[in-house]
Amino acid sequence: MAANGDDPSREAWKEYARRQLQYRTDQGLSQERLADRLPYSESAVGHVERLMRKPTEEYTREIEKALGLDGQLMELLPAIHGNTMGPKWFREWPRVEALAHTIRTSEPMLIPGLLQTERYAREVLLGRPGATPEEAEQAVRLRVRRQAILGTPKPPMYSTLIDENVLHRPVGGAEVMREQLQKLLDVISPPYVTVRIIPLTAGLTVGCLGAFEVATMFDGGPDHAYLESAEEGRVTNRAATVQALIVRWEALSGMAYPVDRSRQTIREVMESYG
């Protein structure tokens, strides 16, 4: 997936090390003094900052407690270690999301993963052929962890286009859908998070070709895209493919309701669930 030697997992690891160093020095702590607050040695702290050892979830939990943080390091772990659940072709996408400046998505079938409630996500993931309840629960936890990127001090600008039929599809029943649509209303916060609805009256659109996402990277690296089909998906930074998806997204954007009308549509459908 990566081009020109770029490795999203290593970039996320470098960002983790940079943040740890910044938070530590902002509090006037040496590696030794920070280690005094941890069940880890000074060398362990240094190894993370020098990219000699990847941080674990346990290490991150302890370091955040010691520095008084609230997820600023934890949010990078999926990007560093990758997603161990789900199809292999999807596992690199959380790494891309964690390093993105802007994320644009189009979804003709389901609420986008970063905006799903736990109960909605559980229904979707349990519906995967061959998925066990245990696998689905682990995947739900990973999906919720991915959503943390939208609540960071420097979140990506996230803009999604959702086909109106998605709102009417009763995934999990009325109660699950009411909760899910309320979450959509709650998260809309232009310009950081925008949700726009493509009305049913738009008819057959290029959005029906399948869900996709386009990510523009913070570091000026190549844009990346994730494409989904009925059988599989793929992650790519091939310029021609990414540009074609950007053109597709812009075409769909021209068909979508403005944000205020989209809010109204979401609210009306939510009320129809009782």
UniProtKB/TrEMBL annotation:
PROSITE patterns per record: HTH_CROC1
Pfam families (UniProt xref): DUF5753 (PF19054), HTH_3 (PF01381)
Domain HTH cro/C1-type residues, every copy: 22-74
GO molecular function, one term: DNA binding
Organism for this UniProt entry: Nonomuraea jiangxiensis
Name of protein: Helix-turn-helix domain-containing protein
